[in-house]
Amino acid sequence: MNKPVLTVVVPCYNEEEVLFETTNQLTSMLSFLINEQLASKESKILYVDDGSQDKTWAIIENLTLKNQSIKGLKLSRNFGHQKALLAGLEVAERQSDCVISIDADLQDDISIMKDFMIKFFEGNDIVYGVRKSRETDTFFKRFTAQGFYRFMNKMGVQVTYNHADYRLLSKRALQELLRFREQNLFLRGIVSLIGYKSTVVYYDRKERFAGVSKYPLKKMLSFAFDGITSFSIKPIRFITFIGFLSFFISSLAGIYALISKFTGHADSGWTSIMISLWIIGGLLLMSVGLIGEYIGKIYEETKQRPRYSIDLDLYSELDHKRASHFIK
Ligand code: UDP
Ligand code: MG
To answer: Which among 52, 198, 25, 164 is positioned nearest to 106, based on CA atoms?
Structure first.
């Protein structure tokens, strides 16, 4: 019987320190899967260089020359983790029966790829890798990440708890994913909207063995904010709710003020006026800002810009000829 062609998609941003070790481990995993008859000999590793400033692309290019099963995709600049991953997935889709996405730093346990494939053979279109614990993360990372998942779920965004972007997608799940045309990508959220049969494999998350996290707090916050505002209009509802609530409270205060006036207890109410002025002003600014956030999203989506640009594609061998290619 035909074995499924697997492509392991790995987004890389300034990962020169980890690439060799990652390649060692991934290639031996791939050979293992092929030996176990779980994946076709055509299976590949696809590194996506997300506009790195270090030697990442040079290393990738070198690896592709030495090893047939390693391919590279170079984006024209840094587009961010989600878009880099998307670019890799979109390119891999044409030639794969299933794809596994994983970070370059091997914090995710690659040995469970075997379980991914077994679950795939059992008929699952989506297999989520889920972290059992976060002991190896710093307290700060753990705390913020946990808060992130809680908050997302409260806001009505369905995300699998402690699932990063380590997952297997079948060809048809991938095709569905690629039909979501939005700019503001939050892949985790989208994957759970696909709805095909899915399951979970648990693993222990390790420490990044070299290099530093490319997700500083600022990127994490904007990631969370994007996740929420691209998936949920609950914040807008919340504003409406606050509006109603403050209206209700002001009515009570108004009645109280009137009664005070008619019973002759009215102080010159400077303080209360100032306070309510500030509160209302604050609420208004907040609401306008939030609504503006969504309008900004609409603005971005309507432009229908391409989500990434490919500089070099060593996977599908399509010719993205550079200008420098032509010699007069
Ligand atoms: N990454 C990327 N583009 C970026 C930032 C990160 O392609 O702009 C890649 C990075 O090389 C890694 C993955 O995304 O393979 C996850 O990043 P990292 O390990 O730094 O995040 P953390 O594990 O700290 O959340
Ligand atoms: Mg990492």
So the answer is: 25
